[in-house]
Backbone:
């Protein structure tokens, strides 16, 4: 976590929830309960809206206060701002209940069924808690089933961190950019600004300040048309021996343009694409072998039968086919161990690698 700075959350458990994957991709199989212990029992990481819904180191909490202030002033989350103005008395009731004990939206005395359309199927109680989360009054822990449990921030974030001075928006943005730069190593400005998803215009201004002050170094990267920059502490590894599958929300690939520039890998999540129009599949994981993305696989964990189902397997051009197939066997074996099933099996027909992977 110290190297990545945050983990993106996602509720889709097709293989395993995405926040568990980055550590697996770097370290191999581990006990996911360790992740939950650190995040939701020890509170070493906390949930925040940063890039997207994410986990961040708890000591970074002061750096995101300016985003909560923006929400409080009505500069972001317009729909929730309107909701909060309309339902202030109800929010006060919810606040009082959270003071008594941590709770999920369904555990409110009066969660209220939804009214209106813009918030979809969520209850009014859920919206009230979400608003309080956006402005920093409450934090989130997770119960079994990835259910949100809301609690007061002072019962989640240690007192010594809560009492730290609040950085100005300028200073907080600069520090977030520094941390993103260190995690990325080499980058163009769009993916640096996107790393913590700081506001774009001030983010660019702060990045240019860091460049002018020598904290970020301009470099040339072969094949890049965009100007590139390097964090001064970045080091180039002698070699990379990766053989692993990546989450669709892994920092290696979540900025799609960067993934294309680094790996010549065009990637799109097709969850919301109608089935007949999908090119690769519903939930497709990139396959990293050495320092190249050499393929992708469409996977689903079948917990009823205790197996990881391979629905599609596709190679990227210009790689040794036998090495890719051999590597995929290893990566799928590791992933099956990690998600807690007995093994993997070919259950589909899509892709140029699927037939060979199905042979003993």
Residues:
């Amino acid at each position: 976590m110290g190297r990545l700075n945050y983990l993106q959350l996602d509720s889709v458990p097709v293989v395993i929830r995405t926040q568990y994957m980055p550590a697996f991709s770097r370290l191999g199989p581990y006990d996911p309960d360790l992740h939950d212990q650190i995040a939701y029992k020890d509170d070493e990481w906390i949930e925040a809206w940063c890039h997207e819904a994410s986990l961040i180191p708890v000591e970074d909490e002061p750096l995101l206060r300016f985003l909560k202030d923006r929400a409080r002033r009505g500069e972001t989350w317009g729909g929730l701002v309107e909701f909060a103005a309309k339902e202030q008395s109800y929010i006060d009731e919810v606040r009082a209940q959270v003071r008594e004990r941590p709770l999920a939206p369904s555990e409110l005395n009066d969660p209220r069924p939804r009214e209106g359309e813009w918030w979809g199927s969520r209850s009014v109680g859920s919206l009230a808690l979400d608003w309080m989360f956006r402005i920093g009054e409450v934090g989130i822990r997770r119960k079994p089933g990835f259910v949100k449990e809301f609690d007061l921030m002072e019962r989640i974030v240690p007192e010594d961190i809560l009492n730290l001075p609040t950085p100005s928006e300028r200073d907080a943005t600069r520090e977030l950019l520094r941390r993103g730069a260190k995690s990325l190593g080499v980058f163009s400005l769009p993916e640096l600004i996107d790393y913590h998803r700081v506001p774009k215009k001030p983010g660019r201004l702060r990045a240019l300040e860091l460049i002018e002050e020598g904290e970020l170094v301009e470099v040339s990267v072969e094949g890049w048309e965009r100007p590139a920059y390097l964090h001064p502490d970045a080091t180039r590894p002698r070699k990379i021996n990766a053989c692993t599958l990546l989450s669709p929300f892994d920092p290696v690939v979540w900025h799609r343009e960067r993934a294309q520039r680094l790996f010549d890998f065009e990637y799109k999540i097709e969850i919301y694409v109608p089935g007949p129009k999908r090119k690769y599949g519903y939930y497709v994981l990139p396959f990293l072998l050495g320092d190249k993305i050499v393929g992708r696989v469409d996977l689903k964990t079948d917990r009823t039968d205790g197996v990881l189902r391979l629905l599609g397997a596709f190679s990227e051009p210009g790689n040794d086919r036998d090495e890719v197939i051999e590597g995929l066997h290893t990566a799928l074996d590791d992933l099956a161990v990690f998600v807690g099933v007995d093994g993997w099996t070919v259950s589909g027909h899509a892709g140029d690698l699927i037939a060979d992977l199905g042979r003993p």
The two ends are 38 Å apart (CA to CA).
